[in-house]
Amino acid sequence: MYKLWATILKDLRVLRRDRIGVIAMFAMPVLLVIIVTEMQSGSFAMANRNRMPLLLCNRDSGAASVQFARALDSTGMFRVIPVLAAPGGQSAADNDDGIRQRLHDREALLGVVLPRGFSALLQSRTNRLAGKALKSFGLDDTIRAGTDSGTAATLRLYYHPVLQEPLRRSAEGALYSALRLVESRQLLRTMYAAINEKELPDSLERELLAGHTTIETIPVARDDSRGNPTVSEHNVPAWTIFAMFFVVVSLGSGIVREKLSGSFIRLKTLPTSYMVAVFSKQLTYLAVTFVQAVLVFGLGVLLFPLIGLPALHLPADWSGLVLVTLLCGACAVSYALCVGVFAETEEQANLFGALSIVILAAIGGLMIPDFMMTGPFRTVMKFSPLHWCLDAYYGLFLEGGGLRDVWPNVLSLVLIIAGLQGIALWGLKRKNLI
């Protein structure tokens, strides 16, 4: 025990001399978690709380186009910026080139052009539909249907390429909702007037259009006291794992440095074993990964509310949280040990270690959610240790589960750690280090 304690003290002194490495190991996860959480929180806020600017070029003067503009505003997603049409309707701001230029200037990321005759064509279409409906009811069709003019009613949606596809599809859905609202209002008015020979009362119109089945969203959590997970619960555990595994840069290069400097040979001359040194390194860096997790989780709980981010809610099962954190740290340390044992130079250890962690994080679900992966990637994902770490944390943070609920992930992590330790032991023997 005295030999192990003396070796741990030696490793702590070595780690203390590497100030840049220590700063990176603790500053990187803090900055990473804050930046990524802020970015995702900001994107959600833009889609949900802050309205997305939208240029609306209305070339129609009818009532339906006005209702469409109001419906867009009522969706709560857009801040409608009218593009006024000049007399004649072909000013630089009114034509499509003007819309494109204003999008290039980032005045907005979306632009909608309502064609001339939009209201008349919509009225003609609703008249035709109302006439068919009345005939199906066995009533006389007294509505003049008019004629459709084909593509004249097509709305054009311009978008800046920087707008990501999920946001663009959400915007398209909101536009379709606004169109359906205008068409439904016009159809109700037309049919009511045809049947009752008077206009539809405003109160009845609002009741018919506003009445709908409500949707209650309920997270499938094991703990009924858990609310809807926030962006902090999604990001803090994921990027904490990412930071844990980046100890490969410090630990891996440290092992290579000792091999190249001949330190392990000097250790063989002492009344101890090199395995004691290897074990002490793992304990030291396991403590580092645990302190990383405590630091980041503490910032999520205490600092995030002060800087406008959602607070991190820790799981109720503290024993499960501590065990999973220790296993994630042990998995990261075991992987770093393997890299250090098999790397020939510090450059190899640093380059391979950093790149491999990024790749394992990508296929493990930290950068792309695992439910979005298809085909062979869903199989490859299971070979990433970070996937099992993340799945265990999500079972605690997002599902509100306890240790008994994440035991399959715990068992998988134990097997992964045992496998990595076995590979490292084989490498040590193969290189005559033990």
Distance, first to last CA: 19 Å
* Backbone structural class: mainly alpha
- Taken from the alpha-carbon principal axes, the silhouette is elongated
N-to-C series of helices and strands: HHEHEHEHEHHHHHHHHHHH
**Low-pLDDT residue spans:** 89-94, 146-152
Q: Number of helical segments?
A: 16
User: Major beta sheet, specifics?
Assistant: 4 strands, mixed
Strand line-up across the major sheet = 2-1-3-4
Beta-strand residue percentage: 5-15%
The total number of structural domains is: 2
Number of strands: 4
Average pLDDT reading: 79
Describe the structure.
The chain is 64% helix and 5% strand. The model is unreliable at 89-94 and 146-152 (pLDDT under 50). It has helices spanning 2-17, 19-48, 63-74, 96-104, 118-136, 165-196, 202-210, 231-245, 248-261, 263-268, 274-302, 318-342, 346-364, 376-380, 385-397, 407-430, and strands at residues 52-58, 78-83, 110-114, 156-159. Strand 1 (52-58), helix 3 and strand 2 form a beta-alpha-beta unit. By secondary structure, the chain is mainly alpha-helical. Strands 2-1-3-4 form a four-stranded mixed beta sheet, sandwiched between helices. The longest helix has 32 residues, at 165-196. It folds into two domains: 2-42 and 227-430, no CATH class; 51-210, abc type-2 transporter like fold (3-Layer(aba) Sandwich).
